[in-house]
Design goal:
Chain A: Keywords: Amino-acid transport, Cell membrane, Membrane, Transmembrane, Transmembrane helix, Transport. The complex is a heterodimer of chains A (about 290) and B (about 350). Chain A has about 290 residues and is mainly α. Chain A is built from 12 helices and 2 strands, in the order ααααββαααααααα. Chain A has one domain. In chain A, β1 and β2 form a beta hairpin. In chain A, α5 packs across α6. The model of chain A has no long low-confidence stretch (mean pLDDT about 90). In chain B, strands 1-2 form a two-stranded antiparallel ribbon. Classes of the chains: A mainly alpha (about 290), B mainly alpha (about 350).
């Protein structure tokens, strides 16, 4: 295993963290809530994709259908559950997402059981590269590519469409947006729906590397939270860079620093994140919040 | 400018003394029920109540930080673990329990203080992330430091045996020990809340800039709140080992921190009763849902959590207080019109 391969593997896991972190950022930008259930929602989406695949649907079709379904369900969750807690006590909103996490986890175990399932990779096996340098798997490149597609698609949506403009207006100032006649409620639903869709993709990307299990996204969520906070919770670019940084550092430390090993490798990026946050509390790419008395 | 304190306004007139007498009677009745309970109930029920008190202390510690001071923490399970390992490791080496108690809570307090000194400048999700790191690091550390912690197997201990003269079974004696310990730290917290510290914490929660203007040293009080919170977490960990005589790395996982935060929100912020109710939810509801259906236990637990939050977004204790006050007011009005 050479260094380049390790770095690319790190970038690949980082891309999965980034995809889920982008979902967290979407939710935070639209409703100001950090959704602890984001990972678990991605898990149930991935199970839906697995069920479709198991029934004979091609991989890409199954993943696509799961993403669309997640978009709808995510929007409904915002409308019928989260809406009641927006603007209230922040702890209540956080705990509601924790309740959602537990419920969805229970639902997944109930429907699909706790036996691990093998999830097919959306990318062909094998890879590119010469014999001496080792090979770089198509899965690794495909995961990084999928993240780039998501970033470009979201960028296009938010920067170049009227819908994206309206969404940004609502994120910046819901009250003024409502006065301008924007359908604030529906745009918040869109934020949660998009987040669930992006999360579903993250789940389908990570599932072939691990096995499909109800707890599959727990550690991914920890990294994604770290990436989102490190990126400033509002910046897509910052989030992606932070997630890549976390993925690469985790992979290199786990491989080359013998003291770290498999059990402590999750701690390395987190401790680095703590140090960075202490130096720059608003995150690397976040904006300083102006507080008034 | 006075700071908002969530105390019900005392009504003047004839209602006050009647209410005070009612409150004293309720307290006496509660103490009696508490004292008699373990003598007539099963060992399992005694353990349940003991565990509720253990987690109530940990949640109270979290309330000092989250409810009183308005900060976030996902690290409480790590401090719980430090306290538990302090007393358990001490017991393995033949230390008396009080020495383990001192060790566990002191280490928890020192670690809490050391984390808080740099972290007190942060707020919101940044602080949440930093505290989240604590359990994530603590679990593999506990597995590795085998000499002290017994590794992944954890530590089995035999402490706080019932003295022969009491004629009590182990579960009954531990129930009383944990109960009295919890009562002491609850009384301390109640005193703290009413005094200078409680008001300073309130001021920080409501508005930091304003608190500074009022002469409250914000950073110092935040560090203090964090330290107190971790000491309470440590005490709860010690009481946990007294209750179950066992500690392993699996006890201090992040999930426990999150469950404590959920318990706090369920019970209601800034309420001693709320801490107990939140702990009761955490201990009792999984048992209930498990007895309803083993396979759907987790799903039912999550749904219960969501339903309670939907019905009582500010927690059970404030909702109860509101209901009790309404009944009392109605009764007073009826008494006044009947005169």
């Amino acid at each position: 295993m050479n260094l380049l391969q390790q770095v690319l593997d790190g970038l690949s896991s980082g891309s999965v963290y980034a995809t889920l972190a982008l979902a967290l950022v979407l939710v935070h930008r639209s409703t100001g809530i950090v959704n602890f259930a984001q990972g678990q929602m991605a898990v149930i989406s991935t199970y839906v994709a697995w069920t479709l695949y198991d029934a004979g649907v091609p991989v890409w079709g199954a993943i696509g259908a799961a993403i669309v379904l997640s978009l709808v369900v995510g929007a409904l969750v915002e409308r019928f559950l989260i809406r009641r807690f927006e603007g209230g006590e922040p702890l209540a909103a956080i705990v509601v997402t924790v309740g959602l996490l537990i419920s969805v986890n229970g639902l997944v175990s109930l429907i699909w059981g706790t036996v691990l399932k093998q999830f097919p990779s959306a990318f062909p096996s094998g890879g590119v590269g010469s014999g001496s340098g080792g090979t770089i798997g198509y899965g690794t490149l495909g995961t990084i590519g999928a993240l780039l597609v998501v970033v470009l698609a979201l960028n296009w949506l938010f920067r170049h469409t009227r819908l994206g403009l309206a969404f940004r207006a609502v994120a910046a100032n819901p009250e003024s947006s409502a006065l301008l006649g924007l359908p604030v409620g529906r745009l918040l639903m869109l934020g949660w729906g998009l987040a669930a869709a992006v999360g579903a993709l993250a789940g389908c990307l990570v599932a072939p590397k691990l096995y499909l299990a109800p707890e599959m996204m727990d550690s991914v969520l920890t990294y994604a939270l770290a990436a989102a906070v490190l990126g400033g919770l509002n910046s897509a670019l910052g989030t992606v860079l932070a997630a890549w940084f976390i993925g690469v550092v985790e992979n290199l430390a786990g491989t080359y620093v013998s003291f770290v090993g498999g059990d402590m490798k999750i701690a390395v990026p987190l401790v680095l994140m703590v140090l960075i946050l202490l130096l720059k509390p608003e995150g690397v790419f976040g904006h300083k919040e102006v507080r008034r008395v | 400018m006075s700071v908002v304190v969530d105390e019900p306004a005392v009504t003047d007139g004839g209602g006050t003394s009647r209410r005070r007498r009612g409150r004293a009677l309720t307290a006496v009745a509660l103490v009696l029920v508490f004292a008699v309970f373990p003598l007539v109930m099963s060992p399992f029920a005694n353990l349940q109540v003991t565990l509720i008190l253990v987690y109530a202390v940990a949640i109270l510690g979290l309330d000092i930080l989250v409810g009183w001071t308005g900060q976030v923490s996902l690290g409480q399970s790590a401090f719980f673990g430090i306290g538990a390992y302090g007393v358990a490791a001490g017991a393995v080496h033949g230390w008396p329990v009080w020495a383990g108690l001192l060790l566990g809570t002191a280490v928890a307090g020192v670690v809490g203080c050391l984390v808080a000194i740099p972290a007190a400048r942060l707020r919101g999700y940044a602080l949440g992330m930093i505290t989240l790191t604590l359990p994530v690091v603590a679990v593999p550390l506990a597995k590795r430091m085998e000499v002290v912690t017994g590794g992944a197997q954890g530590l089995n201990v035999t402490i706080v045996q019932a003295p022969g003269w009491t004629g009590l079974a182990a579960d009954q004696w531990r129930y009383y020990v944990v109960g009295i310990g919890a009562a002491i730290v609850f009384a301390l917290a109640a005193a703290l809340r009413r005094g200078r510290f409680g008001r300073a914490f309130d001021a920080i929660r409501v508005n930091e800039a304003l608190a500074t203007a009022q002469g409250v040293h914000v950073t110092r009080y935040k560090v203090l709140a964090f330290t107190l919170s971790s000491v309470y977490g440590g005490v709860a960990g010690v009481l946990y080992v007294v209750a179950v005589q066992f500690i392993s790395p699996e006890t201090l996982v992040l999930t426990l921190s999150i469950s404590m935060l959920a318990g706090l929100a369920i019970g209601g912020l800034r309420s001693l009763l709320g801490c107990v109710l939140g702990a009761a939810f955490y201990v009792v509801v999984p048992n209930l849902t498990g007895s309803v259906s083993a396979g759907q236990s987790y799903l039912l637990y999550g749904v219960c959590l969501l339903v309670v939050m939907l019905l009582m977004p500010r927690g059970v204790a404030p909702a109860l207080g509101h209901a009790v006050r309404r009944v009392a007011n109605r009764r007073e009005r009826a008494a006044a019109s009947g005169e």
